[in-house]
Amino acid sequence: MNSISNIAEQFFSSPTATISFQIILIIYIAIVAPMSADYITSIMDNYIAKIIFVLLILGATVYSMPIALLLSIAFIVTLQSINLYKVMKSRDGFRNKENQSVDRIV
Known about the structure:
Layout: H1 2-13, H2 15-32, H3 38-44, H4 47-63, H5 65-105
Helix pairs in contact: 2-5, 3-5, 4-5
């Protein structure tokens, strides 16, 4: 556990690393998360992945509050985009079932 703490302290003590990580998180929040595909849905739909992500956010609060805030925003945006993806996928499946039933009647 001490080695993880040392690695985190070294990472967060470097301004270049923290600024780079913040930029990567902002790009993820703005571009990647809203367009999350099936592979992100399959990973983040798991409760263990959600718990690990929350623990990562809690761990980041000890070292850098801006990074913890960006991680929490990324988590929320990812969950919202997964929910939207599921709704759109189920709605498309419902439309396909309606079209199949109409085709059977005609």
